[in-house]
Amino acid sequence: MTNRKPILLSLLALVFIALVGAGFIAAGNVWKKSEADAVGRNEIAANGNVQGELYTGDPRSEARIVQSEEERLVYVRTIASAARWRVDGLEGPYRLHTGATNTLVLPARTEPYTTADLLQLAPDTFKQLASSTYMLTENIVVLPGATLSFAGGEGITVRMQSNEDAFVSVVALGGSLTIAGTEESDVAITSWDGSGADTDTSDGRAYVRVIGGHASFSHATVSSLGFWSGNTGGLALTGTDTAGTFQDAPATPEPVAPAGARLLPEADLQSLGDQTELDYSVVTAGIDNLTVKDNAFGLFVTNARDVAIRDTAITGSLVDGLVLHRSVKDATITATTSSDNAVDGITVGRSSTRVDLLEVTASGNGRNGISLDGQPLADGPNAVGTAVVTYGGNRVLKSTLADNGRYGVELSGGNNLRLTGNTIRGNEVGVVVNYAAESVHIIDNEIRDQRRQGIAVRDAGANADIRRNTISGGDTGVYVRDATATVTGNTMTSLSGHGISLLGNVPGTEVTGNNVGGYGTVAIWDETSTGALVEENELLNWHPAPTVHSVMNSVFQPLTFVWLILGALLVATAFTRKRHLRVRTIRNPYEERVPLTALSRGIVRIDDVRKAQ
């Protein structure tokens, strides 16, 4: 029994080693799958309330102020539509009392209204502080047929009141707004709290908005404007909204009529509230050499057509940089930069179609460089009868998308979308196609040094054509999960996980003719996928890396187990033999032998024998 104990211990040790090896293999498989599926567990929520987490203002108070601003504009629109015929002797610009500040209304005329006109119309509320600096302390509304122009050969600066007492706005309500400087000197529009730009949005902030008219901005700088909503976000180009009801602030003292334009008595306006003529037209715009800094929303556009933006820079927005929100059609954005914004650099929202982004740069933004959302506005019967259709026809061409917090480009739904000739680097994931986006073409792009995947196509209904891209650095080149993709003719180098990963049901997916190089676990991982055709890919430049999974798989083979068992038996036998020898008494092998001298008298000398004779 004593001799069997070491053998049993050896066998138990072998069982333990086998269990540990199996555990390592299982853990390696789990690690490997989770590595390939890492994009699905991104630390930043795909559509979470990022704005609410990052925005530093006061949601409740700012939302109330937004509603109040909408009601004020509806009130002005209502009165303006009927005042010309109902108020005796009304000629030219006039004022309306609208709460904490008056609103100067500029009706139609042939010549644009200029800073010189404002000095005459509003000497108390539009003051010249220096040769080219002005202070505005009341709201301005520009009606259809009128144009307000802030222009100056030497450049001018307009400071808009924005403090805890009140803020003002400039709104083209069907009219046109021009802000035009020169190559040597911009025209600057900014908020002003008495000592500098207003950085507190909790009590509202000055803003500029064009509703249903035309905007022309050139060689201009707009900074530190806007709060909470896109419409009041700083610099907004919007179509006409639906009507509401303006409610003046209670217990407001009777206003004192300022010099200049006539202040219409409220008593003359009581019967005009039901005579609204709403203009539902869209806004148009031409913008070049515009700089937008530190707005709530950098530049917000909705319900617009034929918008052309070029050579524009948008930075430091509290939410998104350039926002093409809803129903923006036939827009061209060229040579424009949107960087260091809190959320997305450029967003193209649902129902916006035929938008071209050419040679734009979106870098250093908190979430995505560019977000294209082509999903339907409704997914079934709804209160307003919105059609269930997807949108698309949008393109990103020859652009740079770098160092953004999450994705370089995200294509969420939609169809006929194209990414061609772009440089995409240093993002969490380069390109993401999801929410059943279809007919997506990702061709001839340089995608490098993403922290996870170069291109990811995922979730049912999504499909993409991925061709002739150069993908280098990062974990995985192309990742397809429960979607369909054609991955052809791409060159991949310096990848550390997989060249191509296929997971789940990927019907109709083809992976052919790609040159895949790197130093990772497996060049093309498709062991857990179904429905894919993988053939004729060049894998000579792929060098498998020694990982825990690969090492354990190579060690724990059947023949390895046989040798381990034989080795363990030899060790056990040697151990047992040594223990057995240690128990026995060590004896002298010659102890039963006696020297010859003991059997004789010893040495006999010949002389002694002779004497004895």
What does this 3D model show about the protein?
The protein is of the alpha/beta class and 613 residues long. 18% of the residues lie in helices and 37% in strands. The protein has a 43-stranded mixed beta sheet that branches. α1 runs antiparallel to α5 (548-555) and α1 (5-36) runs antiparallel to α6. The two termini are 71 Å apart. The model is unreliable at 29-49, 241-256 and 269-280 (pLDDT under 50).
N- to C-terminal distance: 71 Å
Class computed from helices, strands and strand pairing = alpha/beta
In percent, how much strand structure appears in the residues?
Answer: 35-45%
Proportion of residues in helical segments: 10-25%
Largest sheet: 43 strands, mixed
Mean pLDDT: 84
Question: Per the principal axes of the C-alpha atoms, what is the gross shape?
Answer: elongated
Number of helices: 7
Number of strand segments? 43
> Which spans of ≥5 residues are poorly predicted at pLDDT below 50?
29-49, 241-256, 269-280
User: What is the CA-based Rg, rounded?
Assistant: 40 Å
Features:
43-stranded mixed beta sheet, 43 strands, 613 residues, alpha/beta
Question: Would you spell out the secondary-structure blueprint of this structure?
Answer:
Layout: H1 5-36, H2 50-54, H3 59-86, E1 94-98, E2 101-106, H4 115-121, E3 126-130, E4 133-136, E5 139-142, E6 147-151, E7 157-161, E8 169-173, E9 176-180, E10 187-192, E11 207-211, E12 214-223, E13 234-238, E14 262-263, E15 283-293, E16 297-302, E17 304-310, E18 313-315, E19 322-324, E20 328-334, E21 337-339, E22 346-348, E23 353-358, E24 361-363, E25 370-373, E26 395-397, E27 400-402, E28 407-412, E29 415-420, E30 423-425, E31 429-434, E32 438-443, E33 446-448, E34 453-458, E35 463-467, E36 470-472, E37 476-481, E38 484-488, E39 491-495, E40 498-512, E41 515-518, E42 522-525, E43 529-535, H5 548-555, H6 558-583, H7 606-612
Parallel strand pairs: 1-14, 2-5, 4-7, 5-8, 6-9, 7-10, 8-11, 9-12, 10-12, 11-13, 12-15, 13-16, 15-17, 15-18, 16-19, 17-20, 18-21, 19-22, 20-23, 21-24, 22-25, 23-26, 24-27, 25-28, 26-29, 27-30, 28-31, 29-32, 30-33, 31-34, 32-35, 33-36, 34-37, 35-38, 36-39, 37-40, 38-40, 39-41, 40-42, 40-43
Antiparallel strand pairs: 1-2, 3-4
